[in-house]
């Protein structure tokens, strides 16, 4: 008797998000397809290695996160959360993921880039 286990998109995305938000970039990237396309504010990040570099850069300033909502089905998942950095703990971020064959194939990442910039000095 054979047993087949399938993961929903939300299962894959939840494991990915738990890994990267805890600083485990290798485990997170293992759940990303080689040809991933991430539509981020201001740029598209194409390919697993380019995304590793992009996400790794953000991990250098991230100090934690507050999860707010997660939902999905067999092929798509959406996360809504507050990434914490030295300059903000309440700037929202949202991602919509497409998952195929247990790997993240595409992401639409939405956040306000200005919220993560250092505050301007008072004049």
TrEMBL record:
InterPro entries: NTF2-like_dom_sf, SnoaL-like. The keyword Nucleotidyltransferase does not apply. Keywords: Isomerase. GO terms for molecular function: isomerase activity. Residues 13-106 form the SnoaL-like domain. Pfam families: SnoaL_2. The lineage of its organism: Bacteria, Bacillati, Actinomycetota, Actinomycetes, Propionibacteriales. Signal peptide: none annotated. It comes from the Bacteria. It comes from Naumannella cuiyingiana. Transmembrane segments: none annotated. Gene3D superfamilies: 3.10.450.50. This is Ketosteroid isomerase-like protein.
């Amino acid at each position: 008797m054979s047993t087949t286990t399938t993961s929903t998109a939300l299962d894959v995305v939840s494991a990915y998000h738990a890994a990267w938000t805890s600083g485990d970039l290798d485990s997170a990237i293992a759940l990303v397809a080689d040809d991933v396309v991430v539509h981020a504010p201001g740029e598209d990040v194409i390919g697993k290695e380019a995304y590793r570099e992009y996400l790794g850069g953000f991990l250098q300033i991230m100090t934690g996160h507050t999860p707010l909502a997660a939902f999905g089905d067999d092929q798509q998942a959406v996360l809504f959360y507050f990434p914490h950095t030295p300059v903000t703990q309440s700037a929202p971020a949202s991602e919509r993921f497409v998952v195929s064959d247990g790997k993240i194939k595409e992401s639409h990442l939405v956040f306000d880039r200005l919220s993560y910039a250092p505050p301007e000095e008072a004049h």
